[in-house]
Write a structure and sequence with these properties.
By secondary structure, this protein is mainly alpha-helical. It is built from 23 helices and nine strands. A five-stranded mixed beta sheet has the order 6-5-7-9-8. The protein has a two-stranded antiparallel ribbon with strand order 1-2. Strands 3-4 form a two-stranded antiparallel ribbon.
């Protein structure tokens, strides 16, 4: 224990660094966008007895759209206990970040990778420029990441005690809760099942039975929720199957955003779009990362072929194998959902933050495996890999310090100063409380003013209008927002973000469409970040 004291103290210190960084990053409040507003509102409504969902401008209740329920239910518990919603999500994420930093190091330590590598894994997690922003927002990923890797940790513990039914079901249940937090975490449950099937030191029939029990414990809660969701909304997570033509188009569009995700792990966002060096170097960096991971996988496969099944009982190798399953399964799950469902999920750094954490752990585990071989070349490779990871820690620390400072100064999402100081929001708040509203930023309006608004439906369409009509003069039959604007005197609150929202639809004709949209409407207010209109009455 004394020999390990410095390790535990180091892990605790790194967790504290993460807590301080996150608290500074969220000085103006956690990041809140449209999705976070849905989470916070659903949790509050659940405590009020309205239900787990949101109430739209027409007064109709909508069951929690797009997302599984465990994160808002967790928030609801804290709100029920008397904690203000924003404070609940802020401190929940801070605590989860500290626990995740500690857990990453603890998992490496328990796998016998080495004391120094355990500290290195936690250090990489604590200063990650991917994870600090993720934990700074009021989103479900922090809870999902913690539960996902806690489930993997319990699975590894079960592999050491394969007779423990309690560990088996605990691993499955925790993995299942991660799915109830983010559906993409099904990859972690699949990886755990594959690990139990491949790595358990028992007969194959027993392996199959236990893997099935593990999957049943993990999948059942998600299946029950999806069945309930389907009966209430006639869809799962408010999504439907994409058409065959749409799937082909989506398949072709999968790589570009994924490339940006992986590049952001290596360089700042501004260097992806406008690198201060030849752009080809970004492709070289990306190819190097993929090649390095490929070499590590190939080397691991050769070790298994050489040592046979007995090697699979090495705790460190077991950890590495399960991490490989996590990485591959996560890419497959996200890719399949992106290609086959509508509306499409967003391919971004937040979506791939669980994969980012898995890659950190995988690289550290590979370093540990290389350092334990008797081959000098492999031991030298381990030294080079560790040196590279130390340099990466310093590089990430510099990047994260800049991110934290920027977040603290400017704020994030609807808690950013630009939104809090919005003159359009201030003008909207002066309208009579019973005013009907239509806007292109309904979640921002709700979060900042507490008022529900009808969404401007046009920004959610895939096809441009053939005829550019003034708002309120279009087809009213299927557009309730245009109806209330023209017939009931609703105010159209149009923020400048309408340009970026319509640009993917209209391209070069975007400005022409916006001009036609507001032509001859009565201007109630015109500000720096938006305007408020009403339909002219005869």
């Amino acid at each position: 224990m004394k020999n390990k004291l410095w390790v535990y103290v180091s892990l605790a210190a790194l967790a504290l660094i993460g807590v301080v960084s996150l608290r500074i990053s969220t000085r103006l409040g956690p990041g809140v966008g449209g999705d976070a507003t849905i989470y916070l509102t659903s949790a509050s409504n659940f405590v009020k007895g309205i239900g787990l969902g949101i109430v739209d401008a027409s007064g109709e209740f909508r069951l929690l759209p797009y997302f599984p329920p465990f994160f808002p239910l967790t928030l609801a518990f804290f709100i029920w206990a008397g904690v203000e919603p924003l404070q609940a999500v802020l401190w929940l994420n801070i605590i989860l970040f500290a626990l995740s930093i500690w857990m990453v190091g603890f998992l490496v330590l328990r796998a016998w990778a080495g004391d120094g590598l355990a500290v290195l894994a936690s250090a990489l997690t604590a200063v990650s420029p991917v994870l600090i922003p993720v934990y700074s927002w009021a989103m479900a990923e922090p809870l999902a990441i913690f539960l996902g890797f806690a489930g993997i940790g319990l699975t590894l513990r079960y592999l050491k005690q394969p007779g423990s039914a309690g560990l088996l079901f605990a691993a499955g249940i925790v993995g299942g809760l991660s799915i109830l937090t983010r559906y993409s975490m099904a990859a972690f449950l699949a990886a755990g099942a594959a690990g139990i099937l491949l790595l358990s030191p028992v007969r194959w029939r027993t392996r199959l039975a236990r893997a099935a029990s593990y999957l049943f414990a993990g999948i059942l809660p998600a299946v029950l929720w999806m069945a309930y969701d389907l009966t209430q909304t006639a869809a799962v997570s408010s999504r439907s199957m994409e058409s065959a033509v749409g799937m082909m188009a989506r398949l072709n569009s999968f790589w570009p955003p994924l490339r940006e995700v992986f590049l952001f792990w290596l360089v700042p966002d501004s260097w992806i779009s406008s690198p201060p060096y030849p752009g080809l170097f970004n492709n070289v960096l990306l190819a190097g990362m993929v090649l390095g991971l490929g070499i590590a996988l190939g080397w691991g496969g050769l070790v298994l072929l050489k040592k046979g099944a007995s090697a699979l009982q090495d705790p460190l190798l077991q950890f590495g194998v399960i991490l490989v399953f996590v990485i591959l399964a996560y890419l497959i799950v996200v890719g399949v959902v992106y290609v086959t469902t509508y509306p499409p999920i967003t391919i971004g750094t937040r979506m791939f933050s669980p994969l980012h954490t898995a890659v950190i752990l995988f690289l550290v585990v590979v370093a540990g495996l290389l350092s334990k071989t008797r081959v000098r070349f492999f031991r030298m490779s381990a030294g080079l890999l560790v040196a590279g990871l130390v340099l990466l820690t310093l590089w990430w620390g510099w990047r994260s310090a800049r991110i934290v400072a920027q977040n603290a100064q400017q704020g994030m999402g609807f808690n950013a100063l630009s939104w809090k100081q919005s003159d359009t929001i201030h003008a909207l708040q002066k309208l009579p409380e019973d005013s009907l509203l239509v806007t292109n930023e309904e979640m921002a309006v709700y979060y900042l003013t507490g008022r529900s608004a009808y969404p401007l439906a046009e920004i959610y369409t895939d096809q441009p209008l053939e005829t550019f009509s003034r708002y309120g003069d279009g087809d009213l039959s299927g557009d309730e927002a245009q109806q209330v604007f023209r017939q009931k005197g609703a105010a159209l609150v149009l923020f400048n973000s309408i340009t970026t929202q319509l640009e993917p639809i209209y391209g070069a004709q975007t400005n022409e469409r916006i001009q036609a949209l507001t032509r001859d409407l009565k201007v109630v207010f015109r500000g720096e970040d938006g305007s408020i209109y009403q339909y002219p009455q005869p």
